[in-house]
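User: Please predict the structure of the protein below. I'd like the answer in structure-token form so I can feed it into my own downstream comparison script.

Assistant: Understood. Taking the following sequence of 220 residues as input:
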Amino acid sequence: MKLFDWDFALAILPDLLRASLNTLYITAVGFAIALVLGLLLAIARRSRLAVFSWPATGLIEFIRSTPLLIQVYFLFYVFPNYGISLTALQAGIIGIALHYACYTAEVYRAGLDAVPRGQWEAVTALNMKPLTAYRDVILPQALRPVLPALGNYLVAMLKDTPVLSAITVVELMQQAKNIGSESFRYLEPITLVGLFFLAVSLILAWFVRRLEARMEHAPR
């Protein structure tokens, strides 16, 4: 028996590539949601109004203190008991997006706290609308130092997508397990999955570094 069967690896490659599209889709959509929701949570947590800051703080600490696996289990298996039914893919995207939104919220908060106090006072003195102040003055300064951390969470989210196989999302790892259970060969599919995650993680890390370099050279 061959240690690594290249013919078998080539035969299963198309199935794994199709499943990888789900992995990339979940990562892209989930991270887009996490970026937006995380920013809103960070702003809410910094609010002087307790009606915004307390719920945001409670949600962030609760999500950060519980495993992603438990969260997606609740979304997919428990919520239907209360009339909220989601497909496995919907539950997976919502779960991983909310999980990482709470982490990116803390990254955003650190960036916002690092903006010089004089900048906050300036937008107040100019009577700028909050949306305009954040868009034109505050966020451009807050995002530069936190971009590497956000990029790290993008790679981490990609590597966490196999957790969603626990709720039957047919992403790359689930497809590899299906192939292994049918063929009783796990070496080839798991190896190909590992190489996929390695390659995509390196590409994403390179992209983040390039984006960081461009922002560093952008006019301030």
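That's the full token string. The radius of gyration is 21 Å.
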